[in-house]
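Sorry, can you check?
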Amino acid sequence: MILGLCTVMLVYVVLTRLLQIVDSVRLGTVFEMPNAERLHRIGWALLGFELLGLATWGVGERTSLIMLERYRFDDVPSPVEWLMVLLVFALARVFEKGARMRDDLDATV
């Protein structure tokens, strides 16, 4: 139950940050520091998802051993999901650089 509540909180973080990014895109301000910070938070939330997935997987494996039933969990941790987390952090860095470049351009014009 605790893992479920943590998952709900992480989903809330991701969805609210995504909506804020979409709203800023509608206003025409894509490369700004708040969007970079939002992407960083999304990256941390996705990392939390992965850690919760590992915890869930570990609890399931342990429970199956305790019950003397060796159930095979085919949902082993995937490297693609971990790469997704890294990609979001890299995208946040791109947004930071873009925001700095935009600020520099605004200052020179």
